[in-house]
Amino acid sequence: MGNKIFYGIIGLIVVAFIIIAVVIGGNEKSAEDYAYYPYTDKEPEELSGPTIDKLEDEDYQSNKTPAEVEEIVNSGEGEFVYFWSPTCQHCQAATPMLTDALDSIDGEVTQLNVLEYDQAWETYNISATPTLVYYENGEEVERLEGNPGSVDGFEEFMTAAAGE
After folding, report:
1. Which of 10, 76, 81, 93 is most buried (most C-beta within 10 Å)?
2. What is the pTM of this model?
3. Does the domain spanning 44-162 belong to CATH 3.40.30.10?
């Protein structure tokens, strides 16, 4: 009788572990599960947790891959590129102001997440985040490093850099 109870308990424990494994394994999301998924060269499980947390944040809906950023920079058009990191507290404070400034001046920006694409630090000579750079004809025209502290600060930089 004692052996039956022992094996019954062991059986229940095994079944419980199987159920837990299925539930945990079934929670992985694919790129299609997100309304906005810009990391076309990476699967969700390759992204860091802070990046995943920003996928649904409307302030981070202009992200591109490094290849896309390079194409945009070299397009000949004037373009702002915003280098940011989801672990940067200054970025978390500045990005909503940048979004408001863009809405105010009817502007656009391309974002590059340097946490996921750390080669951008060297490629674009980024020394701190956030960094907003204006490129024209494939060349850097103007750079703003850090948080300007206000929507007006971003607006003034962008209108001056773009010569508007």
Report:
1. 81
2. 0.81
3. yes
